[in-house]
TrEMBL record:
<keyword id="KW-1133">Transmembrane helix</keyword>
<feature type="transmembrane region" description="Helical">
    <location>
        <begin position="163"/>
        <end position="183"/>
    </location>
</feature>
<dbReference type="InterPro" id="IPR000462">
    <property type="entry name" value="CDP-OH_P_trans"/>
</dbReference>
<dbReference type="InterPro" id="IPR048254">
    <property type="entry name" value="CDP_ALCOHOL_P_TRANSF_CS"/>
</dbReference>
<keyword id="KW-0812">Transmembrane</keyword>
<protein>
    <submittedName>
        <fullName>CDP-alcohol phosphatidyltransferase</fullName>
    </submittedName>
</protein>
<keyword id="KW-0808">Transferase</keyword>
<comment type="similarity">
    <text>Belongs to the CDP-alcohol phosphatidyltransferase class-I family.</text>
</comment>
<feature type="transmembrane region" description="Helical">
    <location>
        <begin position="204"/>
        <end position="226"/>
    </location>
</feature>
<dbReference type="InterPro" id="IPR043130">
    <property type="entry name" value="CDP-OH_PTrfase_TM_dom"/>
</dbReference>
<feature type="compositionally biased region" description="Pro residues">
    <location>
        <begin position="1"/>
        <end position="14"/>
    </location>
</feature>
<feature type="region of interest" description="Disordered">
    <location>
        <begin position="1"/>
        <end position="22"/>
    </location>
</feature>
<dbReference type="Pfam" id="PF01066">
    <property type="entry name" value="CDP-OH_P_transf"/>
</dbReference>
<keyword id="KW-0472">Membrane</keyword>
<feature type="transmembrane region" description="Helical">
    <location>
        <begin position="83"/>
        <end position="109"/>
    </location>
</feature>
<feature type="transmembrane region" description="Helical">
    <location>
        <begin position="232"/>
        <end position="250"/>
    </location>
</feature>
Length: 260
């Protein structure tokens, strides 16, 4: 959950009800729609699916009286359950779909905690810390769980053990990307969150080109783990795309920091 400009959850963007009553779900969704984070660089799945889904979950959580930290913990619980089951369950269709579903839900809740903080008129440093720690644990363990799963259950890896290098390399690339992006973001905006703006075609093109880096898309791809050969082919393409994006992004982020 990242501290950000609060939104007013009252009707049509107006002030909150004077009696302190929590707004309805639809009312909260409308308020959040008018105060989304900037879309610049957000991959396509995240901006078209995950943020809108997180918006709905945030509105529901707000109606139920949940706190952002509680949503963060629920997100982490869904994600870590999915990761543990990736390593523990055989490569069946049901297991692949169930684990991917848990990761998708965890990711949506990860978006919801920050949006809930905006509904509640701002987040906290402790909440931001908790959110980033959960992300760090997730990204440090997901690809290791995939490697364990492939080693235990994928026959193709038995004849080609070098394939286990794919999740290990992916883990390194995704962790470097996440931590350097977070550092750049925090330094650029001093811990705040810019609101959405109209980016035009250039912003949408950037979202499409950054698709290989999209954690949400990776969650969907993991639903194919029951078929290791096509899964590994798509997984390798995403790894190459993520590595290429990172190689191009790091010099740009450095130049951005020099310009501050």
């Amino acid at each position: 959950m990242k501290p950000s400009k609060p939104v007013s959850p009252g009707p049509s963007g107006g002030p909150a009800p004077a009696d302190g009553a929590r707004p309805g779900i639809a009312e909260s969704i409308r308020a959040l729609s008018a105060a989304q984070k900037a879309k610049a660089g957000a991959p396509l799945y995240s901006r078209l699916v995950n943020r809108p889904l997180g918006r709905v979950l945030a509105a529901v959580a707000h109606r139920l009286g949940a706190t952002p930290d509680q949503v963060t913990v629920l997100s982490a619980a869904c994600t870590m359950t999915g990761i543990v089951l990736i390593a523990a369950l055989p490569l069946t269709v049901g297991a692949a779909l169930a684990t991917a579903g848990l990761l998708v839900l965890g990711y949506a809740l990860d978006s919801a905690d920050g949006q809930l903080a905006r509904l509640r008129r701002g987040g906290s440093k402790a909440g931001e810390w908790l959110d980033h720690v959960a992300d760090a644990i997730k990204l440090s363990s997901l690809h290791l769980a995939i490697a364990i799963s492939l080693f235990r259950f994928a026959d193709v890896v038995g004849s080609r053990p070098a394939l286990l290098l794919l999740p290990l390399a992916y883990s390194a690339v995704q962790n470097i990307h996440f931590f350097t992006y977070i550092l750049t973001y925090q330094l650029r905006y001093n811990g705040g969150t810019p609101l959405a703006k109209d980016e035009g075609r250039a912003g949408m093109l950037k979202s499409i080109l950054s698709a290989p880096t999209d954690y949400g898309l990776l969650c969907i791809v993991l639903a194919l783990r029951w078929a290791p050969t096509p899964f590994l082919a798509i997984y390798a393409v995403m790894l190459l795309g993520s590595a290429g994006y990172l190689i191009l992004a790091l010099p740009k982020w450095y130049r951005d920091m020099r310009a501050l």
